[in-house]
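Async update (no meeting this week)

Hi team, since we skipped the sync, here's where things stand on the single-chain job. The sequence we agreed to prioritize is pasted below, unchanged from the tracker. I ran it this morning and attached the output directly underneath so nobody has to dig for it. Comments welcome in thread, and please keep replies under the output.
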Amino acid sequence: MIMTQEKEFLKAQKHTERLIALVREAIEQGRRIDEVEKDLFAELLQLGFTLLTGFVQGHGPGDVGATTVDKDGALCKRLPDKHTRRYVSIFGELAIERFVYGTREGQKFTALPLDQRLGLPASDFSYLLEDWAQRLCLKEAFGETQQSLAALLGIQMSVRSLEAMNQRVAKFSDRFRDQQPQPPAEEEAAILVVTADGKGVPMRRPLEERVRGHHRRKKGEKANKKQMSYVGAVYTIAPFVRTAKDVIDEVFRRERAQDRPKPRHKRVRVEMTQKLEGEEVQNGKETLFALLSDDVVRRNRGHRRPLVCLLDGEKALWDRRAEYFPQAIGVLDLYHVMERLWLAAHAWHAEGSDGAEKFVTDRLQLLLEGKVTEVIGGLRRRLRTHEVSKEKKRTVHSVIGYFQNNRAHMRYDEYMAAGYPIGSGVVEGACRHVVKDRMEQSGMRWTVAGAQALLDTRSIYLNGNWTEFMNCRIAIEQAQLYGQIAM
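Output:
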């Protein structure tokens, strides 16, 4: 064991001498610095491989005697032949030969002394490589990650391996979130906010449709369907008292608010509806609101912060709010309200016209003053006194219906006086950053399992908890494998 390890260390010393010689030759040859940098990195990867091999060999073959006990305390015996374990590190692939323990060949190994001593993972890929690969996967397509790893480290990984790795890592996300401590009380703000929205994810067509081959799509039929993911967030924020004029100046970008408070300790979750053999086994909205409710209870334990629930006009979301947050101050997102105002404006004014902007500004002013009834009545009168096409009339009626259905959550004068948030920018941003920017890249199609796994890990990453998550994931897996955390 010692001799084998010393051979690797001797190789490493000679390799170090070659590195020094490479630099000296580069100076004499007048080579460009980036060329030398590239050659040095390739050589350093080889040096790392040699030293890592020496590290493994320094631990011997894992022979702890004829018998040992497994993690459950049961006696097991050493099998006669060594078994080879594949280990893919950032430096390259190692073949680790070691003794294993169990009942007999062909049965599951019950004790792996060398694996435990080294802290080997359950999969073939090192925890560090897994970390680096997943950081790339969270931002770019699996195929792009595959090419990046090949170019940077010379490691060949299939797209299927990267997808499976992501799903394997994501299985630890719930355990990690359950173990997260609550934010320090002194870092929290006075208002607790919960918000949610939906964002579509392009899905793969079912297998039976794919094997059927090409068929002409019917009018309005899309090549690929989307399935809704439900995005939610919980955070605290300081009160921000404003007037109607302040809000109008801000939304039209005339005068941005300089002292707008920032959300504190924002935690984002994303859930999709899960089906098994065509039957729904988990509803995305229900699951999301249950998780958000747990977070709200923990965040507000021992406090009397007002709870604000910010949503758009989707009835199903308000139904969940009534079930999970009946005590919350319900606020209809102002930006969705403005979208309806612009729809109504374009029934009578051209898009981009001063008339359309004045139409929206005037009615937004009224809404912010709490005069929802006046806005609804004005739209009805305008329909009677100003001719519009049937299609535009239907649009205006839909806007009126939207305001009528949601008027209980449009008391903006009261909300602003209390300093409550009235725009769902946080969840809108989450829909874009967590879902759209990754899941809707060109040509991407997802299975529910694959999408949920990536959304779980991506939300943890964007919440700023990636390093803690990976450390937690390693500790849990090591305990599962060996009955204790490997040191």
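Quick observations from my side:
The chain has a mean pLDDT of 92.
Residues 2-29 form the longest helix (28 residues).
Reply here if anything looks off.
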